[in-house]
Design goal:
CATH architecture of the largest domain: 2-Layer Sandwich
Structural class: alpha+beta
Helix content: 25-40%
Distance between the termini: 24 Å
Number of domains: 3
Number of helices: 15
Largest sheet: 9 strands, mixed
CATH class of the largest domain: Alpha Beta
Length: 567
């Protein structure tokens, strides 16, 4: 392709509203332009990269035994109402009405749609397992779109779904997809980790997120410093053992603590360590009120609380609810003499706190000398806190460290969450109707594009991995008015294009400094500069990744490129 014919509107300055490197570079290199908040046009260079990512995804999905289809983005509300998610998904689901006042949603995901398709066509165990996938634009009304295409309201996604007759079959399908995802992200040149995750609104169990390691990631990964263990921080179990002090128990005493609400304030006011304090937070778990206790130096993991009760929704109790149930305001809540309408649960670490401090359920007062098993009625002790750096790894090997990650893929074992709700059944070997067992597997294609740029860039621009660069070779004649340079550049362009290389020829009448700056910004793997030695049949080759440059005779160039681009 000749550069004069392509739409590549590069920018010299960093856009003021672009916070992260991928957003800045995609704007500056002419890959995207914003249409409205969280919605972007993908310009020709970005479109070429997206198609290469999609091709990698297709190859790996096909290899895993999945077939491609395409479902509508516009979905009737009745399907979402069957699954129950019309009411529970939240404001991210874009809802609309047609001219007949019928409710629809723009597809945020397609579990309901695919389940309805398969239930109408598959009736026997002999037709299972079955795996289907699509690559399609999705819509989610993000409250705060940010970071360019990393968190948008319209994005490109590959979503796959598998249907099985047995759990063993689901396990096999899940492993195939898991391995396919590893292959996809490896081929995209990404440094990533597969981490244990929460299924969230999708439902189901046994789920992994594929996280690209990045300082700008919105998720925190807890990983072992010596093993392969990795989990989303909200899902990592804590296996710490807590030793109870041998000191004698003090008497329970109520003390005045004027305006001392937080653990930090109480710790400072009473001159005690935070691990001597007991943090008490009132939650509403579905329709049940639960007072959760953790040690003062720990944080409550609401996902663990939600999973403990197998709940659909968990949220902090309001100030009014706290006042009604505990007769006090947040900041002075505690577990002593709590109403029977509130269940009290505690993290394991709380049981080992001797002579601690907690709220008294009276404003401006706390208790000291608190010993939980003596002074309260805790219904159960569970793992309810977030894991911390320095904790033992849950697999027993090594110490936990934290890293930030960008989620680019997610695989779920959905089980019968959707098939039971939507009556998607098959007849087993005995002629009995059974709910189909499902798996679900998503890759953020447009997000993967941005994640690659986050990991592959330098101070001059993007540095594309060879397999997904929009072009492999960038040919730049220094002076297009010079016949020798122009003719040699044209010849190289024709020769390499005919031999299967993707070549971008900068035939613009621009200063060479502008051409070089744009070339570095766009980031193609190999740059061939045709300059003053064109008459001698000599060009300069520069490798974008290493910055290495050297002169090559044109009759040796083809062999050299085979070596470079096959590494």
């Amino acid at each position: 392709m000749k550069q004069s014919m392509m739409f590549i509107p590069t920018l010299r300055e960093i856009p003021a509203d672009a916070e992260v490197k991928s957003h800045q570079l995609m704007l500056r290199a002419g890959f995207i332009r914003q249409n409205t908040s969280g919605v972007y046009s993908y310009l020709p260079l970005a479109h070429k990269v997206l198609k290469k990512i999609e091709q990698i995804v297709r190859e790996e999905m096909n290899s895993a035994g999945a077939s491609e289809l395409l479902m509508p983005a516009l979905q009737q509300a009745e399907l979402w109402q069957e699954s129950g998610r019309w009411y529970s998904y939240g404001p991210e689901l874009m809802r609309l009405k047609d001219r007949h006042n019928r409710d629809f949603a723009l597809g945020a995901t397609h579990e309901e749609m695919i389940t309805s398709l398969v239930r109408d066509e598959i009736k026997s165990y002999k037709r299972l397992p079955l795996a289907l996938y699509q690559i399609q634009t999705k819509f989610r009304d993000e409250k705060r779109p940010r970071f360019g295409v990393l968190r948008g309201r319209e994005f490109i996604m590959k979503d796959a779904y598998s249907f099985h007759a047995t759990n063993d079959s689901l396990d096999e399908g899940y492993e195939k997809m898991f391995n396919a995802y590893q292959n996809v992200f490896t081929r995209c040149g990404l440094n990533f980790r597969a981490v244990i995750a929460d299924s969230g609104a999708m439902g189901g169990t046994d789920t992994h997120e594929f996280m690209v390691l990045s300082d700008i990631g919105e998720d925190t990964i807890a990983y072992s410093d010596t093993s392969q263990y990795a989990a989303n921080v909200e899902m990592a179990p804590v296996i710490a053992k807590y030793e109870k002090s041998s000191e004698s128990e003090n008497e329970l005493e109520k003390i005045e603590t004027p305006n001392q609400r937080t653990i930090e304030e109480i710790s400072s006011f009473l001159d005690i360590p935070k691990d001597q304090c007991i943090k008490s937070i009132l939650f509403k778990v579905d329709d049940k009120f639960v007072l959760v206790l953790v040690r003062g130096d720990h944080e409550i993991n609401d996902i663990k609380v939600k999973n403990l009760y197998n709940a659909s929704v968990i949220e902090l109790a309001t100030a009014d609810e706290t006042k009604t149930l505990l007769n006090c305001v947040p900041g002075f809540v505690g577990p002593i003499n709590v109403s029977d309408d509130v269940e009290v649960v505690a993290d394991h670490a709380v049981a080992a706190v001797m002579n601690g401090v907690c709220g008294s359920n009276e404003e401006n007062f706390h208790y000291k000398g608190v010993n939980i098993e003596r002074d309260t009625e805790v219904s159960k002790f569970e793992d309810l806190r977030f894991i911390q750096e320095g904790d033992l790894s849950p697999d027993g090997e090594g110490i936990i460290q934290f890293a930030k990650g960008i989620e680019v893929g997610h695989v779920f074992k959905l089980g019968t969450r959707y098939s039971e709700a939507m009556n998607a059944t098959f007849l087993d070997e005995n002629g009995r109707a059974q709910p189909m067992i499902m798996g679900c597997y998503g890759i953020g294609v447009s997000r993967t594009l941005a994640a690659i740029i986050e990991q592959h860039n330098d101070e001059n621009g993007i540095v594309w991995p060879d397999d997904i660069a929009p072009f492999s070779i960038h040919i730049i004649p220094v002076n297009v008015k010079n016949d020798s340079q122009r003719e040699l550049a044209d010849k190289l362009y024709q020769d390499f294009s005919e031999n299967g290389y993707e070549v971008l020829l900068d035939d613009r009448q621009e200063r060479v400094g502008v051409k070089f700056a744009d070339s570095d910004l766009i980031g193609l793997p190999v740059r061939i500069t045709v300059g003053k030695k064109a008459d001698e049949g000599i060009v300069e080759v520069k490798l974008r990744k290493s910055g290495e440059s050297f002169e090559v005779r044109t009759d040796e160039l083809a062999e050299k490129l085979v070596q470079i681009l096959s590494k």
